[in-house]
């Protein structure tokens, strides 16, 4: 292991030395070569000469209406733009109560890369009018070399909505009932907040985002092919939600309360967020209390082809769950020693109690519609869940050229304490035999401890090239105990065949180097390499069996951005990724659903590797056309295994040999009318999965298409209407064939009290069409069909109030960079 680590570090050092030597050499620039400089200045009141703080400063290319960068003036009125590409610019200064001012013909050149504008004076507006809030309805979408940035700040889309709402309507993003996220039709998405991993389950992440106001979001980065800077984990990319930095002195925040009904269950949520800034301290707290409800209605049809006779299995099922607990709390604070160094911390704690049931009626026979056995299986589960997540971080700006050093330490503690009762009643339909009862009980305490530390360094080299270096170490300890009992007598009897105790310990050591810069005037390149050493040990303490692994992987990435002309840009990218098995999937436990259906973990799961190649074309800085190819090796997927003799199906997580997919995605924002914006995503793809089932090769292939459209309409009297429609065509996943489905969501919002109070009403899956119908054919003649509806149709009402208790002058500081959107279309 030490030799591998030394080799890893040596290779990275060689890459860095070679890259720096090539790109940082101080040779004369060819004609037209691109470089960078900076623009600085001070903003003051024209009458008093006092510095103006928190004014909006927007940087635009000459003759353009779209801002290329933006900032706020500091507490001393100073402003600065660094890493400004050579060219001609103009800067617009905006501040509430003052006249807007534009300084034109600012040239940043190789001869004069640093431009000092001196003192810029703003005059007071002659009339004291009420603030006019100008917003765009839809977010601005910017395509960078390695990511797509959806700007939320200052748009009507953010007003009165939650962070979850905004994420779920981002281009190509789909979130299911449990909070699992797909990007462009593919699962395996990593979600980050401010560049930090959340370490939350899908459902807990959804709870956190539903309790967070969208007004807190600056932008969402959709990173389909992440660079070497990011963890290599995740086959479909990263969604990074960047929150706004609080610039308002004093106190401000929001509070909300809402209710929901899905036709059978009532739920509620309430909470709020509070930010406080004074001097060097900047703190926040977010609280959310909720009663989350859900369920499903389903039918399962199976046919088992036997050597002598067939078995027909027909099941109707109903499931319900309710999760509630004390308020979840996310709190944090930052302290700035000066304008260069700051430290901070964040903590998140949530606990809830989940009660669920799964009730099934099953008919089994040797001919269609001729059952000879009826089984009533009633499952009742409860679980106490606790999650504590914490982070300490440091950020240092070591110079004015963009050299930064940051460090993070994370600790996560997750605990689950669950138990379940299974009541099974068997009735022989061919005789008058009495009902046979079989009662079972499980106790499944488990938990995870996660430790992580990382350091990142970035610096600017000659000619504007940027070098990024970093290292990370993490450790996960998973402790899982599953006890299974026969519960047919007064004293439960331990079932040793289905009882297991599994402990998993995983260590990952990583280092990366990332280098980006310009080659000529129209071409920029970013190249990176990440190395990750994984050392793990899984021990089944019930039997003493151990499974040790140690492997070193390299994950290269390459991005090329070509500016063909002002209205046409092409991005090329390549990356290699890994998806390690879920910790729970490695547990070799039986999860019981009914006497004929189990789910089982797999300690022999292998990691999945993904090669991804993409070409993105951007037209008029607005329309995106993305061509992507993925090759996945050792695909991790749920697979069914059947036993015709007992009519039993065991679902397990296994490795499919490989899969390939080719996709074409179009993102088309359209302004239909002045107050009607539309954002549309069209996806066409072809996927195929190759695997071996019962020693026979199986190919599952499918042409897939998806259309997603979000309509935002501003109505009179402060009403806003949003209509979301999605259509998913037929798709393939491992052994499963999934039928088409579609749904329509409708939302309407009314604002009161000068936009401080919002009342929202949302109708989800209006036509009750978001039904999941799929089939898996295992072996000749065997059938395994699903038809499930997860109660997506619901109505939700939310009342949200925003407030600010800062000093009176802070009302003029509340720009939130909305003016940057005013400079666009």
UniProtKB/TrEMBL annotation:
Residues 397-801 form the Outer membrane protein beta-barrel domain. Keywords: Cell outer membrane, Membrane, Receptor, Signal. The keyword tRNA processing does not apply. Residues 1-24 form the signal peptide. Pfam families: CarboxypepD_reg, OMP_b-brl_3. InterPro entries: Beta-barrel_TonB_sf (IPR036942), CarboxyPept-like_regulatory (IPR008969), OMP_b-brl_3 (IPR041700), Plug_dom_sf (IPR037066). It is found in: Cell outer membrane. One of its GO terms (cellular component) is cell outer membrane. It comes from the Bacteria. Its main location: membrane. PANTHER family: PLUG DOMAIN-CONTAINING PROTEIN, TONB-DEPENDENT RECEPTOR-LIKE BETA-BARREL DOMAIN-CONTAINING PROTEIN. This is TonB-dependent receptor. The lineage of its organism: Bacteria, Pseudomonadati, Bacteroidota, Cytophagia, Cytophagales.
